[in-house]
Amino acid sequence: MNRPTPPDSNRRCILLLVDGLRPDVAESELAGGRLPHFARLLAGGTRTRAITAFPSTTSVAYLPFLTGCLPGRCNIPSIRWLDRSAYGGRWWAERGAVRSYCGYQAGMLDQDIAPDVRTIFELVPESAAFFTMITRGLTPDRDPIQGARKFWGAISHYLLWHQPGDDAVAGALVEWIRRDPDWRFLFAQFPAVDGYTHQTTPDAPRVIEALRRVDDTVGALVARLASNGQLDDTLILMVSDHGATVVKHHLDLAVWLRQRGVPTLAHPELWQKNPRAAVMVAGNGSAMIYADPGTPRVDRWPLARLRRPETFAADQPDLIQVLAREPAVAFVAAQESDGTVRLADRSGEAAIRQSGDAITYRPETGDPLDGPFSGTRSAWLERSFDGRFPDAAVQLLDQFRSPRTGDLIVVANEGYDFRDRWELPEHKAGHGSLHRAHMQVPAWSNRALGAAPLRTVDLFATVLDWLRVPLPDGIDGQLVGPVAIPARNG
Questions:
Q1: Which residues pair with 355 in a beta bridge?
Q2: Structure pTM?
Q3: Angle, CA of 210, 214 and 216, to the nearest 5°
Q4: Domains, the chain, ranges and CATH?
Q5: Is the dihedral of CA 365, 370, 374, 380 positive or negative?
C-alpha cells in the first residue's frame, strides 16, 4: 500500500556538505557505479547542480545554506576583510578591525554576521551540527565535535592528512541519530575532499577515496534512519560550497603592489607603516583591495578615483589599468556612489545597475560578462548558469551590500590565484573566483526538488518549507518549488 505523507511534526532534514566537491567529479563517480549508497538514495530523488555564493570559499559559502542570505547581506564579504570605518593604521591596537577567519579570529565569525540575520539553528532549536564554523543558535551539547574540528583544522592543513576530520564527522552524525529521537535538522561538514584537492587536483585519487568514504557514511546513516523508522520522514541533501581548479600560477597581489611602490598591508604582515593599500585574499581566486586603509572613512572610492595616480602613489599613472591587463586577472569591480557596479578588464569597462527587480548589465568599452542583458535575479541565473561567470551580476551586487567590502574586487582567471609568499603549503588547486568551475556545485537529494535553476541560498528555503518553519523576512533564498513526496509501496 502507499505510505501517507509524513506529519509535519515528524519531518526531519539532514544536510551533508562535502567541502570543495566538484559536480563533474561526483557525477562521474556516481555514473561509474562507485557511489552505490548515493545511487540508492537518489532513486526517485534529484541529482542536479546549483550556483554557490561569491567568494566561492569555505565558511563564507556556508552562509547561504545556514542563513538563507548571501555573504554581502550577512555582512561577511570574505574570509578576510578590513573595516575601513574603524581601522586607523594602528596595526596592533586596531587588529580587531582587520579580520581573518583562517586563524585565531575564526571564532569571531558568529558575532560578525549581521545581527538581523537568523541561522537555521536559531529557527529550528532541535538542530545539531558537526564540524561547523557557524554555530550561532547552537548550544554546546548540539555542537558535539567542535573540539575535534579545531584540533584537526589546526594540524591537518600542515600534515596534509584530512581524512580523520571526515571520520570524526561520520561517527558523530550516526551516533546522534541513534541516541537522540527528537532531532529535526542535522548539518554535517566533511572537510577531506577540499583538503586533498588543495594539495593535489580536484579528481586526485585521495579526493576520490574521501568521496567514497562519504558514500559509506551515507549507507550507515540511511541504515540507522531505517532502523529508527525515520527514513520516510527525512529529507537528505548532499551539497558543496564551491568547486575547484588546478592552479598553475600565483600572482601575489600584495607583492605585486609593493613592487610598484605601494606600501601594502596583507595577512599576516599587518605591521605595514602608512599603507596605501590593503589586500584581503579569499580562496585564493579572488581578493579585495582597500585604498588608503589607515585613514578611516565610510564611503568606498569609485573606479575613477582608484585610477588616479595619487590614490596609490604607484609608479604607474593608472594602477587599475595595469592590474586589469595582468594574465591572472579576469576583471576588477568597484561601486559608484549611486550603487552602480563598474567592471574593468583588459578591453575596457562595463556597468551593472539595479532598478527595482531589474538588473541591467551594459558593456561600454569592455564586456567582461558577455552581455548586454537585463532581467530579474531568476532570469540572470537561468541565462548565465553555464556561462563563464555564473550569476556574476547578482553576486557582485550582493558583495557591495556589505560595508566591509573593499574598494576594489579582483577576480582571478582560471589557473591563477592571488597568494604565493604566505600560501603554506602551496595550493596546487584552489577556488574563490567567479568562474564556472568554482561556482557550480552538486545538489543531490533523496526527494524531487523544484525544477527551476538553483542557487545554494535557495536550499535554505527548501529545508524550512519541508520542516514547515516559516521563512524569515529579508532572506535572499527563494522557494523554487515544494519538495515532492513520492508514493512508496510498503
A1: 358
A2: 0.95
A3: 115
A4: 8-245+437-467 (3.40.720.10), 248-430 (no CATH)
A5: negative
